[in-house]
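From the shared-data thread, chain only:
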Amino acid sequence: QVQLVESGGGLVQAGGSLRLSCAAAGSAYVFNTMGWHRQAPGKQRELVATISRGGSTTYADSVKGRFTIFRDNTKNAIYLQMNSLRPEDTAVYYCAADILYWGQGTQVTVSS
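Structure, as tokens:
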């Protein structure tokens, strides 16, 4: 059974940085597309960034230039480097693999 395990969330001041990690356990399959989504209180879940098996990336307009997604296929893992964080980035961040598997979420809180 595939499990996505996230880590790296926390509390940071505006302008600070965090790196999220997500590792896929229970499968040696290298997923085609992995990504990060987030959900703020009272809002719908939204796509933050995706990365294909070959390394092609997409980003939400709100995070372009601040966030970077990258992956390590040898570890079946993806990462999200978040710089210049803003209070509006506060949300639970979820890792997803081929939109079939989801992690449990990790809280990111940015204080002003």
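The chain has a mean pLDDT of 95.
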